[in-house]
Structure formats: structure tokens, C-alpha cells
Design a protein that fits this description.
With 236 residues, this protein is an alpha/beta fold. The chain is built from ten helices and seven strands. Helix 4 runs parallel beside helix 6 and helix 8 crosses helix 9.
Length: 236
């Protein structure tokens, strides 16, 4: 059964593409894993995940010739994956595409019926930012949960760096996830003001694989993966 992993958040700048990058590193040597950039405005993952090679990185536009979002384009693409050799497919959605996703679930077609018919397993990864992004991030999570109607697994990801000055919000988020029965995970514990942190963030922008980093930054990245991405590393 193929696994579809949707990385979503309608609030921009919270770390969706960073999460996609770290997941890409965790699956760097997993030939059965494909990553799809569904962010037509920035195409960030296309740049950051270039270390995966063209065979394991694709871009999908949900815009028509008039730059209008066409949600059904996603369904057509998902259908085309049925004969794909990849068993795990990660989709990095941009903010506008994420904004439209609940409407696809609620209005366009019964998504659970579709995934069951295609023998797909769908998992939804929702990134939550701290500080000024927190309220909008949580509101999007609530909207998506209503649309999913308890039919799919939802993983909530706390973007650690954005919560550094807001420990109360971090505690609140974790507690709310526990109360709702949602899996809670954290990622991205990089200090941009430190030497290693700046090296890593620069490497992310350049689309480096693990072996392209200097020794210290590579070891720090490996710690991030071992601390927060053990589930993904077992698929290597």
C-alpha cells in the first residue's frame, strides 16, 4: 500500500519546507521515497531537495493557465501514482495550496473513499509556528481536522525555533494534541545565530545532502535526525 504524506499549513513562514528538507535527509538513501513540491509561488523544496536527484523530486502545479488554483489537478496526479515504483510520497504544499486543501476534502469528493479505492494510506503533517504565527497555525489545524472528520492520521509538528521565546505556547500545543489524541512531534532545533546553525541553514538553501556539510554541521544534522526523525530513518 502506498503512503501519501501531505505537509500542510496555510500560514506562511512556519517551516513547512524545512520539515520537507529534513524528511528528505532522513529518506536520502531510500529509493522508494518521492518528494513533490506543490508550492507554485516559491518552489522552495525544488531547490532545497535537489540532492535527491531528478528521479526522486517532482514539481506539481495546481494552477491553471489563468493562475487559478484547480484542486482537481491533485486528484489526477494522485491517480497517476498508481503505477509508480515509489511507495512513500511526500507533498510539500505552499500556503495558498494548503488553504484550498480542506475545501477539496469537503466539497470535491469523499477523500477517504478515493484513497481506499486507490489502496493509498494518507497521513497529514501539519506544521505549527510559534509567536505571531501560532493563532493562525492552530486555526488552520482546527479547520483541517473538521474536514478530515477523524478519518486519517494527523501529525502535528512544532517548529522548535519559532517557539523559543514562547514556552507557554509550546506547552499548550502539546497538551491540546494529547487531549485531541493527535500525535505530537518537534523539529528544527537550529539556532540561526550560532556558527553551526548558520552553516546548516545555508546548506539547506543550497540543497545540500548530508555528505556535503562540513564535519561539525553534519554531526549536528545527524543529531537532529536521530532526535526527531527516527521513524523515517528506519526506512533507509
Amino acid at each position: 500500500m502506498k503512503e501519501l504524506h501531505f505537509i500542510l499549513q496555510s500560514k506562511g513562514g512556519v517551516g513547512k519546507s524545512l520539515l520537507a528538507y529534513l524528511l528528505g535527509l532522513a529518506h536520502q538513501h531510500s529509493e522508494q521515497t518521492l518528494f513533490v513540491d506543490v508550492d507554485s509561488s516559491t518552489e522552495t523544496s525544488t531547490r532545497q531537495l535537489k540532492f535527491l536527484g531528478e528521479a526522486r523530486m517532482e514539481a506539481l502545479s495546481l494552477l491553471n493557465e489563468k493562475e487559478v488554483l484547480v484542486r482537481d489537478n491533485l486528484i489526477s496526479y494522485l491517480e497517476s501514482l498508481s503505477d509508480s515504483p515509489f511507495q512513500r510520497i511526500y507533498f510539500d504544499f505552499g500556503a495558498p495550496e494548503s488553504e484550498q486543501f480542506p475545501a477539496l476534502l469537503e466539497r470535491d469528493l469523499p477523500f477517504k473513499e478515493f484513497t481506499d479505492a486507490m489502496t493509498y494510506q494518507a497521513v497529514f503533517h501539519v506544521v505549527i509556528g510559534g509567536g505571531g504565527a501560532y493563532k493562525a497555525s492552530v486555526e488552520y489545524l482546527q479547520r483541517l481536522l473538521r474536514a478530515l472528520n477523524l478519518q486519517f492520521e494527523v501529525i502535528v509538528w512544532q517548529s522548535i525555533t519559532t517557539f523559543n521565546n514562547f514556552p507557554g505556547l509550546a506547552t499548550e500545543l502539546k497538551a491540546n494534541c494529547e487531549n485531541l489524541g493527535l500525535r505530537f512531534r518537534t523539529f528544527g532545533d537550529f539556532d540561526p545565530g550560532s556558527n553551526l546553525g548558520s552553516q546548516i541553514l545555508d546548506g539547506i538553501r543550497r540543497g545540500y545532502g548530508r555528505e556535503e556539510y562540513q564535519t561539525g554541521a553534519r554531526i549536528r544534522l545527524n543529531k537532529e535526525l536521530n532526535d526527531h526523525f527516527k521513524d523515517e530513518l528506519i526506512h533507509q
